[in-house]
Amino acid sequence: MKAALFDLDGVLIDTEPVYTEIWSNIERHFPTGIDNFAQRIKGTTLPDILSQYFRKEDYAAIISMLTEAEDNMEYPLFTGTVPFLKKLKEAQIPAAIVTSSNDIKMRRLFAMYPGFNEFFDAIITDSHVKRSKPDPEGYLLAASKLGVEPADCVVFEDSFNGLKAGVAAGASVVAIATTNSADSLRQYTTLIATDLSDKSLDALF
Fold this sequence. Notes:
The chain is α/β, with parallel strands linked by helices. Helices cover 40% and strands 11% of the residues.
């Protein structure tokens, strides 16, 4: 591979269970009537979540609930994250984050882990795209910023929306089975890993 493109939550940081509870709680206050709502929206930007599922008059209250929860969150790195990123650096393989999260969260993350941002040659957040995952825009933009073709990239994703985006971008896709079961991920790719410490990933570089 010539470049590695990473989703953030559920791939690099272990936050998806927290977000599931946050959005389940929001949905209890502002019911959508959608089964497994918190799972369904994974990989989607906040503007898209609000516009697709909630009334405009509820936006402010929902944003307030989300902001309060995120202000008290920690962003634990998965055990395999830093060792895997170090291997990429040593192999001179450029890397990017492609996340539906916002710039405020990214600044908080990088402040929590000084030097972590140096592993990445590009950061794509919700402020850089008009269409959230499963649209491939974010991954296409990341490949462009790294100066490589999407077909020469490997996308690391845990959510269904993110996997769809990686496939639509024309990249090779590795499904990380932290949020969803391995069986449920096989419809998108045959490359499935438990996390970034999975030895099966050594064959990629």
